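Worked example 3 (structure in, sequence out).
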């Protein structure tokens, strides 16, 4: 009751918090449709994607849309979240975080080092036998041509 009387006395006419300025909260959007819309409109500053989404097709299409802004981390309750507005005080921290993520996960060298090790160039016995058969046939054909 005293708060309303103070509001009348100050002449704020029912404005929120009796005319006392408040800080804007950080805007964190969650949900695949919301995040997709924000990424397409280039309003997303950092996209965080959960690593255990099932089925994975829910978030796979997000990766090409925001290559410089992706970060795959552990998550529990949603598929992805994004920051759309950050206070100027936290902007430096967010930039430092995004730079660390980009250098550790998004650059081509690290990506190739982390993701693209497919068996170490070791062929299975069937492939080795098939290649040997083809080489033997080529050698036989070359021998018949030469003479």
């Amino acid at each position: 009751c005293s708060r309303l009387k103070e509001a009348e006395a100050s002449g704020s006419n029912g404005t929120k918090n009796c005319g006392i300025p408040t800080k804007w909260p950080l805007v964190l959007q969650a949900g695949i449709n919301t995040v997709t819309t924000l990424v397409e409109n280039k309003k997303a500053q950092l996209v965080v994607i959960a690593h255990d989404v099932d089925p994975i097709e829910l978030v796979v299409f997000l990766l090409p849309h925001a290559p410089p802004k992706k970060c795959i981390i552990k998550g529990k309750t949603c598929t992805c979240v994004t920051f759309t507005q950050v206070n100027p005080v936290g902007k430096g921290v967010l930039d430092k975080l995004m730079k660390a993520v980009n250098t550790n996960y998004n650059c081509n060298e690290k990506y190739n080092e982390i993701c693209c090790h497919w068996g170490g160039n070791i062929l299975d016995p069937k492939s080795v036998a098939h290649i040997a058969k083809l080489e033997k046939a080529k050698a036989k054909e070359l021998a018949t041509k030469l003479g």
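Notes: The radius of gyration is 29 Å. The domain at 24-117 is CATH 3.30.1330.30 (60s Ribosomal Protein L30; Chain: A;).
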